[in-house]
Design brief:
- By secondary structure, the chain is of the alpha+beta class.
- About 20% of the residues lie in helices and about 20% in strands.
- The N terminus is likely disordered.
Length: about 280
Protein backbone atom coordinates (compact mmCIF):
# COMPACT_ATOMS: atom_id res chain seq x y z
CA UNK A 1 0.00 0.00 0.00
CA UNK A 2 1.55 3.25 -1.05
CA UNK A 3 -0.89 5.74 0.37
CA UNK A 4 -0.14 7.12 3.81
CA UNK A 5 -2.63 5.93 6.44
CA UNK A 6 -4.47 8.41 8.58
CA UNK A 7 -4.14 8.35 12.36
CA UNK A 8 -6.44 5.75 13.84
CA UNK A 9 -7.45 5.63 17.51
CA UNK A 10 -9.19 2.68 19.13
CA UNK A 11 -10.41 2.64 22.74
CA UNK A 12 -10.45 -0.69 24.53
CA UNK A 13 -11.03 -1.82 28.09
CA UNK A 14 -7.81 -2.87 29.80
CA UNK A 15 -9.69 -5.47 31.83
CA UNK A 16 -11.58 -7.12 29.00
CA UNK A 17 -10.55 -10.58 27.83
CA UNK A 18 -9.77 -10.23 24.15
CA UNK A 19 -9.42 -13.35 22.05
CA UNK A 20 -7.29 -13.57 18.96
CA UNK A 21 -8.49 -15.26 15.81
CA UNK A 22 -5.10 -15.16 14.13
CA UNK A 23 -6.07 -14.74 10.51
CA UNK A 24 -3.20 -13.52 8.38
CA UNK A 25 -3.27 -9.78 7.72
CA UNK A 26 -0.15 -9.98 5.62
CA UNK A 27 -0.87 -9.13 2.03
CA UNK A 28 2.76 -9.91 1.31
CA UNK A 29 2.45 -13.60 2.29
CA UNK A 30 1.16 -14.83 -1.03
CA UNK A 31 2.65 -16.69 -3.95
CA UNK A 32 5.88 -14.77 -3.46
CA UNK A 33 6.41 -16.34 -0.04
CA UNK A 34 9.26 -18.80 0.20
CA UNK A 35 10.13 -21.82 2.27
CA UNK A 36 13.62 -22.02 3.74
CA UNK A 37 15.15 -25.15 5.21
CA UNK A 38 18.10 -24.91 7.58
CA UNK A 39 20.12 -27.83 6.27
CA UNK A 40 22.35 -28.20 9.31
CA UNK A 41 19.50 -28.43 11.81
CA UNK A 42 17.08 -30.32 9.52
CA UNK A 43 14.34 -27.92 10.65
CA UNK A 44 11.97 -26.47 8.08
CA UNK A 45 11.37 -22.77 8.64
CA UNK A 46 7.87 -21.34 8.58
CA UNK A 47 6.67 -19.57 5.46
CA UNK A 48 8.64 -16.39 4.93
CA UNK A 49 7.67 -13.51 2.67
CA UNK A 50 10.77 -11.64 1.46
CA UNK A 51 11.32 -7.99 2.27
CA UNK A 52 11.02 -6.45 -1.18
CA UNK A 53 14.21 -4.71 -2.36
CA UNK A 54 16.26 -5.86 0.65
CA UNK A 55 19.91 -6.26 -0.39
CA UNK A 56 21.32 -9.72 -0.97
CA UNK A 57 23.95 -10.75 1.56
CA UNK A 58 27.20 -12.53 0.75
CA UNK A 59 29.50 -14.34 3.13
CA UNK A 60 31.92 -11.41 2.94
CA UNK A 61 29.25 -8.83 3.78
CA UNK A 62 28.01 -10.93 6.69
CA UNK A 63 31.53 -11.31 8.04
CA UNK A 64 31.86 -7.51 7.83
CA UNK A 65 28.80 -7.18 10.09
CA UNK A 66 30.29 -9.66 12.55
CA UNK A 67 33.49 -7.63 12.66
CA UNK A 68 31.52 -4.40 13.10
CA UNK A 69 29.70 -5.76 16.14
CA UNK A 70 32.58 -7.93 17.37
CA UNK A 71 30.52 -11.09 17.41
CA UNK A 72 30.04 -14.50 15.85
CA UNK A 73 26.42 -14.94 14.81
CA UNK A 74 24.78 -18.28 15.63
CA UNK A 75 24.97 -20.73 12.74
CA UNK A 76 21.23 -21.09 12.12
CA UNK A 77 20.73 -17.32 12.13
CA UNK A 78 23.66 -16.83 9.73
CA UNK A 79 22.11 -19.33 7.33
CA UNK A 80 18.81 -17.48 7.48
CA UNK A 81 20.45 -14.14 6.67
CA UNK A 82 22.43 -15.54 3.75
CA UNK A 83 19.32 -17.16 2.34
CA UNK A 84 16.71 -14.50 3.14
CA UNK A 85 18.20 -11.35 4.70
CA UNK A 86 15.01 -10.43 6.51
CA UNK A 87 11.45 -11.67 6.13
CA UNK A 88 7.82 -11.41 7.16
CA UNK A 89 7.04 -14.75 8.86
CA UNK A 90 3.70 -16.51 8.73
CA UNK A 91 2.45 -17.62 11.20
CA UNK A 92 3.62 -14.63 13.23
CA UNK A 93 2.47 -15.24 16.82
CA UNK A 94 5.09 -15.89 19.54
CA UNK A 95 3.95 -17.06 22.98
CA UNK A 96 6.16 -16.53 26.03
CA UNK A 97 6.18 -16.02 29.81
CA UNK A 98 6.19 -12.45 31.13
CA UNK A 99 5.32 -11.01 34.56
CA UNK A 100 4.24 -14.41 35.82
CA UNK A 101 1.79 -15.14 33.02
CA UNK A 102 1.65 -16.55 29.53
CA UNK A 103 1.32 -13.84 26.90
CA UNK A 104 2.10 -13.21 23.24
CA UNK A 105 3.14 -10.72 20.62
CA UNK A 106 3.61 -10.80 16.88
CA UNK A 107 6.76 -11.01 14.81
CA UNK A 108 6.10 -8.14 12.41
CA UNK A 109 9.37 -8.77 10.62
CA UNK A 110 12.82 -10.28 10.92
CA UNK A 111 15.28 -7.49 10.14
CA UNK A 112 17.37 -7.17 7.02
CA UNK A 113 21.02 -6.07 7.04
CA UNK A 114 21.91 -3.10 4.85
CA UNK A 115 18.23 -2.15 4.48
CA UNK A 116 17.55 1.55 3.79
CA UNK A 117 14.17 1.62 5.55
CA UNK A 118 14.80 2.16 9.26
CA UNK A 119 11.79 0.16 10.45
CA UNK A 120 13.13 -2.99 8.72
CA UNK A 121 16.87 -2.50 9.32
CA UNK A 122 18.98 -4.40 11.87
CA UNK A 123 21.77 -1.81 12.02
CA UNK A 124 19.35 1.10 12.57
CA UNK A 125 17.83 -0.58 15.62
CA UNK A 126 21.19 -1.60 17.02
CA UNK A 127 22.55 1.93 16.72
CA UNK A 128 19.35 3.71 17.82
CA UNK A 129 19.01 1.63 21.00
CA UNK A 130 22.71 0.94 21.59
CA UNK A 131 22.73 2.47 25.09
CA UNK A 132 19.61 0.57 26.14
CA UNK A 133 19.98 -2.88 24.65
CA UNK A 134 21.36 -5.73 26.76
CA UNK A 135 25.03 -6.51 26.49
CA UNK A 136 25.94 -9.40 24.20
CA UNK A 137 22.72 -9.24 22.19
CA UNK A 138 21.59 -8.08 18.77
CA UNK A 139 18.09 -7.03 17.62
CA UNK A 140 16.89 -9.43 14.93
CA UNK A 141 13.26 -8.36 14.54
CA UNK A 142 10.37 -6.41 15.99
CA UNK A 143 6.67 -6.65 16.73
CA UNK A 144 3.99 -4.31 15.39
CA UNK A 145 4.45 -1.98 18.38
CA UNK A 146 8.20 -1.53 17.99
CA UNK A 147 9.31 -3.93 20.72
CA UNK A 148 12.33 -6.02 19.76
CA UNK A 149 13.25 -9.66 19.44
CA UNK A 150 16.88 -10.10 20.52
CA UNK A 151 19.38 -12.88 19.96
CA UNK A 152 22.02 -13.68 22.55
CA UNK A 153 25.60 -13.67 21.30
CA UNK A 154 27.78 -15.05 24.10
CA UNK A 155 27.82 -17.26 27.16
CA UNK A 156 24.85 -19.33 28.29
CA UNK A 157 22.45 -17.12 26.30
CA UNK A 158 24.27 -17.54 22.98
CA UNK A 159 21.74 -18.22 20.24
CA UNK A 160 18.68 -17.82 22.48
CA UNK A 161 15.88 -15.39 21.63
CA UNK A 162 14.53 -12.78 24.08
CA UNK A 163 11.69 -10.24 24.08
CA UNK A 164 12.68 -6.60 24.79
CA UNK A 165 9.99 -4.00 25.59
CA UNK A 166 11.01 -0.51 24.47
CA UNK A 167 8.37 1.05 26.76
CA UNK A 168 9.22 -0.53 30.13
CA UNK A 169 9.38 1.39 33.42
CA UNK A 170 12.79 2.39 34.77
CA UNK A 171 12.60 -0.08 37.66
CA UNK A 172 15.30 -2.55 36.59
CA UNK A 173 18.48 -2.74 34.53
CA UNK A 174 17.29 -3.16 30.95
CA UNK A 175 20.85 -3.79 29.73
CA UNK A 176 20.93 -7.21 31.42
CA UNK A 177 19.67 -9.91 29.10
CA UNK A 178 18.53 -12.12 31.97
CA UNK A 179 16.00 -9.45 32.99
CA UNK A 180 13.97 -10.06 29.81
CA UNK A 181 11.66 -12.96 28.87
CA UNK A 182 13.45 -15.81 27.18
CA UNK A 183 11.29 -16.91 24.25
CA UNK A 184 13.27 -19.71 22.59
CA UNK A 185 16.54 -21.57 22.99
CA UNK A 186 17.58 -20.92 19.39
CA UNK A 187 16.61 -18.95 16.29
CA UNK A 188 15.42 -22.17 14.62
CA UNK A 189 13.16 -22.93 17.58
CA UNK A 190 11.87 -19.35 17.63
CA UNK A 191 10.70 -19.43 14.02
CA UNK A 192 9.42 -23.00 14.04
CA UNK A 193 7.40 -22.31 17.22
CA UNK A 194 5.48 -19.41 15.66
CA UNK A 195 1.88 -20.47 15.31
CA UNK A 196 -1.80 -19.95 16.00
CA UNK A 197 -2.75 -18.13 19.17
CA UNK A 198 -4.73 -19.80 21.95
CA UNK A 199 -7.05 -17.13 23.34
CA UNK A 200 -7.14 -18.87 26.73
CA UNK A 201 -4.07 -16.67 27.32
CA UNK A 202 -6.50 -13.78 27.77
CA UNK A 203 -7.88 -15.04 31.10
CA UNK A 204 -5.97 -12.85 33.55
CA UNK A 205 -7.47 -9.45 32.81
CA UNK A 206 -4.61 -7.89 30.84
CA UNK A 207 -4.83 -8.53 27.10
CA UNK A 208 -1.70 -9.61 25.30
CA UNK A 209 0.03 -7.27 22.88
CA UNK A 210 -1.02 -9.62 20.09
CA UNK A 211 -4.70 -9.23 20.98
CA UNK A 212 -4.49 -5.43 21.15
CA UNK A 213 -2.73 -5.24 17.79
CA UNK A 214 -5.23 -7.65 16.20
CA UNK A 215 -8.28 -5.74 17.43
CA UNK A 216 -6.78 -2.40 16.40
CA UNK A 217 -5.95 -3.78 12.96
CA UNK A 218 -9.45 -5.19 12.55
CA UNK A 219 -10.86 -1.76 13.42
CA UNK A 220 -8.73 -0.15 10.73
CA UNK A 221 -9.80 -2.74 8.16
CA UNK A 222 -13.42 -1.76 8.78
CA UNK A 223 -12.51 1.74 7.60
CA UNK A 224 -10.21 0.64 4.79
CA UNK A 225 -10.64 -2.92 3.54
CA UNK A 226 -7.21 -2.86 1.90
CA UNK A 227 -5.36 -2.00 5.12
CA UNK A 228 -2.71 -4.23 6.67
CA UNK A 229 -0.08 -3.41 9.26
CA UNK A 230 2.63 -5.05 7.17
CA UNK A 231 1.52 -3.02 4.18
CA UNK A 232 2.67 0.07 6.13
CA UNK A 233 6.14 -0.85 7.48
CA UNK A 234 6.94 2.80 8.23
CA UNK A 235 4.25 2.87 10.94
CA UNK A 236 3.67 1.10 14.26
CA UNK A 237 0.89 0.61 16.79
CA UNK A 238 1.42 2.70 19.92
CA UNK A 239 -0.44 1.65 23.07
CA UNK A 240 -1.59 4.35 25.49
CA UNK A 241 -3.41 3.75 28.78
CA UNK A 242 -5.09 6.28 31.07
CA UNK A 243 -5.36 6.13 34.87
CA UNK A 244 -8.62 4.22 34.67
CA UNK A 245 -7.13 1.46 32.57
CA UNK A 246 -8.69 2.44 29.27
CA UNK A 247 -6.43 1.63 26.34
CA UNK A 248 -6.00 3.67 23.18
CA UNK A 249 -4.18 2.26 20.17
CA UNK A 250 -2.65 4.75 17.73
CA UNK A 251 -1.06 4.02 14.36
CA UNK A 252 1.97 6.33 14.29
CA UNK A 253 5.15 7.02 12.29
CA UNK A 254 7.68 4.34 13.21
CA UNK A 255 10.94 6.25 13.60
CA UNK A 256 9.45 8.97 15.81
CA UNK A 257 7.72 6.31 17.89
CA UNK A 258 10.93 4.33 18.33
CA UNK A 259 13.13 7.31 19.19
CA UNK A 260 10.84 9.48 21.32
CA UNK A 261 8.35 7.07 22.92
CA UNK A 262 9.66 5.39 26.02
CA UNK A 263 7.38 4.07 28.78
CA UNK A 264 4.15 3.25 26.96
CA UNK A 265 0.61 2.37 27.93
CA UNK A 266 1.17 -1.37 27.95
CA UNK A 267 3.57 -1.14 30.91
CA UNK A 268 1.16 1.27 32.61
CA UNK A 269 -1.71 -1.17 32.10
CA UNK A 270 0.34 -4.01 33.58
CA UNK A 271 1.24 -1.85 36.58
CA UNK A 272 -2.41 -0.83 37.16
CA UNK A 273 -3.32 -4.51 37.21
CA UNK A 274 -0.51 -5.40 39.62
CA UNK A 275 1.54 -7.51 37.22
CA UNK A 276 4.63 -5.31 37.40
CA UNK A 277 5.97 -2.56 39.63
CA UNK A 278 5.17 0.97 38.46
CA UNK A 279 7.91 3.59 38.32
CA UNK A 280 9.48 6.44 36.45
CA UNK A 281 9.24 6.47 32.65
CA UNK A 282 12.47 5.73 30.86
CA UNK A 283 13.76 8.95 29.35
CA UNK A 284 15.43 9.47 25.94
CA UNK A 285 19.19 9.00 25.95
Amino acid sequence: MNRKPTLFILWLSATCMIGCDRKSNDNLSDASAIQTTLSESNLTMRTLAPIVDAPRLTEDSLQAIERKYACQLPKDYREFLLSNNGAYPTPDCAVFEEAGRETASDVFCLFAIGEERASLCLEWHQETFSKRLPENSLPIGRDSSGNLWLIGLRGESAGAIFFWDHGSFDTFDETKLENWPKVAQSFSDFVSDLGAYDNSIETKGVPSRYSLIRQATDGMVKRDSGFSTRGNPGFAWHCDCDGEGRVRMQFVQYEAHAVFTHTCGYSRMCAINGLIKGGQPRLPE
